[in-house]
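Colleagues,

For the teaching module next term, I've prepared a clean inverse folding example: a structure given as tokens, and then the sequence designed for it. I'd like students to try predicting residues themselves before seeing the answer, so please don't circulate the second half yet.
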């Protein structure tokens, strides 16, 4: 593939993880339960051991150094720092992350720290309903203040991971049984946006040199046909699933199509005096994008039955059920793309398309905060993991990312998901994402031995050549 534009020398070649997915020790060393840990799929591994990073963190950072990472994205678990959600600080939690940051700095690996990766302290859920109450904004701000005070040397912060996914993935949030679900989601979304804005403002005050932004999971929508109804359905799906959040973060506004839809359906959130001014005043420095796939949508009549997204959890049967919004859109499979075992559409060109789309609309630097493929990796007789599927996936996506940069999109870095095998939020240890294999499965934690996969060597070459290796292949 002929691509001329080189990656800038400052490009942050990285990889990502999140706390509850790798650390383990989820109810020990002063940490308490989080909402996402409580709601984890019980058919798979629980978060008590995960990848054993709480014990193996030094070995893991040695591997990051060997890989040549320029940046590492990880999250700090709120219930490890503030076991009661607020108030008393768990010093052991502070030291754990302090040591990680110090070792990363020693190896010149830039830390990119996610403040909130789905792990609301369960005690706050029980006390006042978590994200359904404005009380959470004050507690979240307190958590941010602790982080900014304790870790002032972090240059890049991510406020909230995948705010958009609370609309899709039921296990990330808890909802009250007696309030209509959709109504709750939009209320929570508004409250979460306010919390994000407060974090941005606090960061500006306390750490004026640091950069801060959200990390949004985005699935661009394509029309199933050129039928005008389907084209409009794709636009509306993008409005409701992507631009609702992007416009709030970037412009401090509800876009008119979305707001009218909410009002017509009695779903509009409570907006208090001053809310929109706070949101508008907190423009991020950059946007983090988690990209895994694109989606096809078509128009569906208002009389159709409402459907929620049902994931293929086991990677065995083709049993994904796409969600819909009657009268607006319904999801469908794309006949032109390959799929992962878990039915996720593999679409590298969609990545370039999305990056162009976002940059044209918002003119803001982008950091890829997640991109990767879940596979069933096996250790072969030679004690190796030949994960060619991952290499192909990442190579193609990085080539498209490079083309997007050539198109003019400003991209600061690329955090592959994930650095090491970890607990997949939907499918436990069966579904692996890492460059480093962790020898355990869902039902036996074994010795948690780390083994470098073929993709480790491939990424090492990519980083060492500052991307030239992608072009030469
Ligand atoms: C994103 C999350 C990650 C990770 C990834 C893969 O939504 O931010 O935490 O889990 O998706 O998803 P899964 O593990 O469900 O395959």
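(Answer key — instructors only)
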């Amino acid at each position: 593939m002929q691509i001329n534009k080189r990656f800038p020398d400052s490009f942050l070649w990285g990889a990502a993880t999140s706390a509850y997915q790798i650390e383990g020790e989820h109810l020990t060393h002063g940490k308490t339960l989080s909402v996402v840990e409580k709601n984890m799929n019980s058919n798979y591994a629980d978060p008590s051991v995960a990848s054993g990073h709480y014990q193996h963190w030094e070995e893991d950072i040695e591997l990051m150094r060997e890989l040549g990472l320029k940046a590492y994205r990880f999250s700090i678990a709120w219930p490890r720092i503030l076991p009661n959600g607020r108030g008393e600080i768990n010093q052991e939690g502070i030291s754990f992350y302090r040591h990680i940051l110090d070792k990363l700095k020693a190896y010149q690996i830039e830390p990119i720290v996610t403040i909130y990766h789905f792990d609301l302290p369960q005690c706050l859920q029980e006390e006042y309903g978590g994200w359904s109450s404005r009380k959470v904004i004050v507690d979240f701000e307190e958590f941010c203040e602790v982080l900014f005070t304790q870790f002032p040397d972090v240059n890049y912060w991510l406020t909230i991971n995948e705010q958009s996914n609370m609309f899709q993935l039921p296990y990330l949030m808890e909802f009250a049984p007696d309030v209509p679900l959709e109504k709750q989601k939009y209320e929570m979304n508004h409250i979460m946006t306010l919390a994000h804005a407060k974090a941005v403002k606090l960061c500006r005050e306390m750490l004026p040199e640091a950069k801060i932004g959200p990390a949004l999971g985005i699935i661009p929508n394509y029309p199933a046909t050129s039928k005008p109804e389907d084209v409009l359905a794709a636009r509306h799906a993008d409005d409701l699933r992507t631009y609702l959040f992007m416009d709030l973060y970037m412009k401090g506004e509800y876009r008119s199509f979305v707001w009218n839809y909410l009002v017509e359906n009695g779903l509009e959130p409570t907006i208090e005096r001053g809310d929109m001014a706070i949101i508008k005043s907190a423009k991020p420095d950059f946007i983090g994008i988690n990209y895994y796939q694109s989606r096809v949508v078509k128009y569906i009549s208002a009389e159709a039955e409402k459907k929620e997204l049902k994931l293929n959890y086991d990677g065995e049967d083709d049993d994904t059920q796409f969600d819909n919004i009657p009268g607006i859109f319904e999801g469908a499979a794309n006949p032109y793309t390959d799929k992962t075992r878990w039915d996720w559409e593999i679409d590298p060109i969609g990545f370039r398309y999305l990056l162009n789309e976002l940059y044209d609309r918002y003119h803001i630097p982008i950091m890829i905060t997640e991109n990767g493929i879940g596979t069933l990796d096996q250790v072969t007789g030679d004690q190796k993991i030949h994960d060619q599927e991952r290499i192909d996936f990442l190579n193609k996506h990085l080539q498209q990312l490079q083309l997007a940069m050539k198109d003019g999109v400003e991209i600061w870095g690329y955090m592959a998901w994930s650095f090491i095998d970890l607990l997949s939020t939907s499918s436990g240890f069966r579904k692996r994402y890492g460059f480093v294999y962790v020898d355990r499965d869902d039902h036996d934690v074994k010795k948690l031995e780390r083994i470098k996969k073929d993709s480790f060597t491939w990424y090492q070459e990519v980083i060492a050549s500052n991307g030239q290796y992608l072009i030469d292949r």
